[in-house]
Amino acid sequence: MKVATKAYGLVDVDERQSIKFPYGLLGFEQLKDYVLLDAEQQPFYWLQSVDVERVAFILVNPFLFRPDYELDISDHELNEIGISDPKDALVFTIVTIPADGSAMTANLQGPLVINKDNRIGKQMILMDPRWKTKHDIVAELAAARKAPC
User: Residue 142: its pLDDT value, please?
Assistant: First the structure.
């Protein structure tokens, strides 16, 4: 299928890249259909709305810069998207890159959890006080590299 994207213009997308968020994302509850695209800069991805070209999010795997990241999610919430085994899940966090050049941050309080098999996702809200909406990715990556094994 063809999708108009914010980053790349009109692109051909494989159906296997489609992801449905039945509840939408916070602030974008009305948009439920997305595609997951590789970004030119690894390790990032684009989550592009199928319905609104200008709505796209940069994603990253949070375990790359926070190996200690823990998701305390109820079985009920995981069952809503068909996950019974954690290894069936993909986990991403939304990245913010401010125009003013300040630190690139990731929202560890509201991760996106996607069922690999049925490609249904949900934005979870974590109550753990360690996880905030703005974690400095570069600073935390540097700290993780310095941490003793």
Answer: 83
